[in-house]
Amino acid sequence: MAERPPATRDPQLLKGVLPMLVLALLREQDSYGYELVTRLRDSGLTDVSTGSVYPVLTRLERDGHLASYLVPSAQGPARKYYTPTDAGLTHLSVQRRSWQQLGDVVAVVLTPGPRRARPAPEARP
Amino acid sequence: MTAPTPAAPAVPRPGLRDRLRRERYLLALVLWLDDDYPSAQRRALVEQLRGDLDAAAADTSMHEAIRSLGPARRLAAEYSELLDPRRPRWGLGAAAAAGWLTVWLLAAAVFASALWQVAPAAGADGATARLLWAELTVVNTPRETSVGWQEGFPWTLVVALAAFVAAARPWRAVPALRGRAGRATGQS
């Protein structure tokens, strides 16, 4: 994992992309809640809190984008693992395209262009 | 492609102090959850968080694991928001019925205490007056002290039932009767 300086992110910005990131990570490997949090942190979202991830998992499961199954643990309660459904993978593709399109627009808008002078106010009669 | 998981990693059992911390947080979460949060989901959620808190505590500490979850009240609110807003609200219905019964009993108590003041002058038959559909008789003599209550038709319970039905909207238990409004909760 590349060392990145801790960044202060707008929580709302993160909230918007978190479901997509969760689906993307689960597409690679099924995970239980806390494991997913550590994977998000290892990906660079060092400031993501577990409290923001669990409701996202529940919402994705409620909407049919994730399925879950219990895996017994050698010690303690069984773990609830999440896996993306076909609908979830389709949803991820759509989200990814939307995100890329939005990213393109944002990149264009944020690219500094030549500064134009403000038009002079019209003289009143 | 998703790789299946063969077995959940074992984590060391937290100490007594950490287990108490964990259970205190989970209890607070359960208390803040919506009254109508399905009990099966509630149990599954608590069980899931219990295991995951232990795993997080093994990495850092139970204090840090709980801190990362955020205040129990806020987390419970986020989970409650995920419920279908068109569900029956049994808890709300019970609260409405209980509220009506409380108001009614308070009104009857105030009414009876007013009759108590005039009952000695009414003699052995006591003072009788009507409060809406109920008839109260208060006897207050040196030989007898009593409060009687007569209600022909049980209107008090009928109103309580009406309050319950109006607030709980039990017809929503039938999916076809839930109305056409879509889910108000955010779609991911």
UniProtKB/TrEMBL annotation, chain A:
This is PadR family transcriptional regulator. It comes from the Bacteria. Residues 22-92 form the Transcription regulator PadR N-terminal domain. Pfam families: PadR.
From TrEMBL, chain B:
The chain crosses the membrane at residues 90-116, 152-171. Keywords: Membrane, Transmembrane, Transmembrane helix. This is Uncharacterized protein. It comes from Georgenia soli.
